[in-house]
Each structure stands twice: as C-alpha cells, then as structure tokens.
Amino acid sequence: MNAERIGEVAQLLARPRLSGPPTPAAPADLAAATVADGYAIQRALHAVLEAAGHGRCSGHKIGCTTPVMQAYLGIDHPCAGEVFAATVFESGAEVPLQRFHRVGVECEIAARLGSDLPARDGGHDRDSVAAAVESLMAGIELVDDRYVDYTALPAPVLIADDFFNAGVVLGVPVTDWRGLDLVAIEGVMTIDGDEAGRGTGADILGHPFNALAWLADHRAAVGTPLRAGEFVMLGSVVKTVWIEHAATVTARFEGLGEASVSFV
Asked: Which Gene3D superfamilies match (predicted)?
C-alpha cells in the first residue's frame, strides 16, 4: 500500500474519533491489506489524532491475547495498539456515555515499565520482560464500536484503528507483585455490582507476561521499543461487555486491587 493510500485510510478512520459518523464498510482494496499495512496506517492515524489534540501516546494495548477474545472476534493472533494520554483515567472516574459511539469494557491487568525493553537476541520471554516491570495494576480497557459493522472489517483495518481502543482506567499501582501467581490470578468484572465475567492470568497467552514479551518483540521490530514509564494493557480475561446505559463498572484482580469507572 503506497503512502498516499495509507494517508487516505488514516483520515477515514480518524473521522469517528473526531466526532464524525461511524466508519463505513471498508473499501474493496482494503480486503487484501496486510498486517504490515495495518500498522503503517496506525502510525499515520496517530499523527492525525495527535495534531487534532489527543495528546501523545502514553501506553499500549494488546488485543486478542485470550481465547475468549480470539473466538469473539475471529482473530487468532495478538494485535497491538496505542493509548493516548488524553484517554487515560484514574480509578473512580466519571465518563460521559456521549463521549463514545458505543462503549464497551474489558477486564485487564496493566503493567507499568520501570526500564526500557529494547530488542533482545533470540527475542524476549516472560522472564526477560518481568525484570522491566515496575508495577502491576487492575485496569479497564474502554473500547468503542465506532463502525457501521466491525465484523465486515478485515483484521488489518482493526489494527490500524488501535483495535477498538478508546481509553483505559487504571487502578492503584502495586509494586510488590512478584509474590503473586500471575497464572492463577483471577479477574472479575462487575456491572453495577453484578458479575459480568471472570477469567485468570493463564487465559492471557498462558501467562500475562507472554503477551508483554510479544509486544516487546513487535515494538522492537518496528523500531519503537517499549520505554520506561509506559504502561501496557495485557488483554481482557472476559469477553467485551457493551454499556448501553449509565452504569458503574469494576475490574478486580486478586492481589492487585480494583479499577472502577462510572458512565454517566
């Protein structure tokens, strides 16, 4: 895909994120787009959104790291996106529903990096990335169905648009996480106090840090390695829940506390 077409698609995807109507079905030429095309469009889209006032990208998300989400979206591999500083909320935030087209919530572990993760001979593994993790926290990813029909869009187009990301809610950082069993750790999401789903760390590629290792290798390969101070959302342990009315959502992980957000 040439630079001109990449720019055109980036503008198309930017419109619903800048108060425009939902993204329509993808043009025919995007059906053959590659994953590499998707990430190239993503970079162009970020430039458009930054210029429009979204701020810098301060964190990352990984989509499709769990069986429940791979089955839900019909995509069998992880997908990376970035999170803009203007869309990062602290636990307890109130967020207007009208900020979104149709907001969804996901229950995730977030990792904050204390050191860089440059390219590593032979690639990263969960032990190598663990050394860079300063803290872990409960998190809620905010996703937005800003499409006429997202099921009609190929995976590269979803990648280009940060894989539905519309923000995150982060709980209190836990720095003494190393004694936790991150495979067995259980996450539970509730909506107005009623359970909406649960899962364990094992659901995230077998171990949450396997997802982080995948992202570290991906970012290093494209020349923008993960940096100290950034956070990474490691993938949802529950299927996306779409919020239609005012509600309070809580994600809780054993040993990591909780994150909550109220939609008003």
From this structure: Fumarylacetoacetase-like, C-terminal domain
